[in-house]
Write a structure and sequence with these properties.
This protein is mostly helical and 218 residues long. Helix content is 45%, strand content 3%. The protein contains nine helices and two strands, in the order ββααααααααα. Strand 1 and strand 2 form a beta hairpin. The longest helix has 17 residues. The chain is globular, with a radius of gyration of 20 Å. The C terminus is likely disordered. It binds zinc ion (ZN). The site of zinc ion has 8 residues, from loops.
């Protein structure tokens, strides 16, 4: 009748099911000349930022994808092409480059692509690149509506856990920078700079974060 059908991923295993056209990706365009995607949380941020303003990870060691022409065009295809097969192929090719700069776009695709096969491909490539920043996003993908994606996320987590030493897991994340400052050092600093904690909070607070004036912050 008029009731809305609930999408069940298991039906995709049925070869006789008529494939319905998928809606286009939620986000139609990202200008990779001026924007980059955080590999840890999947948000898009200014290309000049060395730290993610949403999750605080250090991006200084990861080149933005927009700096490489071929990768940039493939990234645009991966998020805008109307055909899921084409998007999947772009994701596969980007992952095959084996470079850290593709982590952001793969993360974005895993979180946003409407097609489960494209999302699965992104999870697969993130596992192959085994960067510790991908652990949170693959953990999030364990709740994907598609079983194919959930299975690939488990594989990805397995691959990363195998390759990464425990001391590398927190590298570049805000908490690792906190650990480096011992409590005594912090107290000593607080005496010199009374509002140290306020300054830190401002840095990652997206509400109060002024995009235009922060180029010299980091
Ligand atoms: Zn982030």
């Amino acid at each position: 009748m008029g009731s809305k059908k609930i999408f069940r991923p298991i039906q995709d295993d049925n070869p006789y099911r008529i494939k319905k056209a998928q809606p286009p990706p939620k986000r139609s365009f990202i200008d990779f000349d001026t924007r980059r995607i955080c590999p840890a949380c999947g948000q898009d941020i200014k290309i000049t930022h060395n730290f993610c303003k949403y999750c605080g990870v250090d991006l200084s060691m990861i080149e933005p994808i927009g700096k490489d022409d071929i990768s940039k065009h493939l990234a645009t295809t991966a998020v805008t092409d109307p055909d899921p097969e084409v998007r999947k192929e772009a994701v596969d090719t980007l992952g095959g480059f084996g470079d850290k700069k593709v982590l952001g776009i793969l993360t974005f695709v895993l979180l946003n692509d409407p097609d489960e096969n494209v999302r699965r491909e992104a999870a697969d490539e993130l596992g192959d690149l085994h960067h510790p920043y991908s652990l949170d996003i693959l953990t999030k993908a364990l709740k994907d509506e598609s079983a194919l994606v959930r299975k690939e996320a488990i594989e990805g987590l397995k691959k990363i856990k195998k390759k990464i030493k425990p001391n590398e897991l927190e590298e570049g994340k805000p908490q690792s920078r906190e650990i480096k400052t011992t409590i005594n050092e912090k107290d000593a600093l607080r005496e010199k700079i009374p509002n140290l904690d306020d300054i830190k909070e401002d840095k990652y607070d997206s509400e109060n974060y002024d995009e235009e004036d922060d180029n010299n912050l980091f």
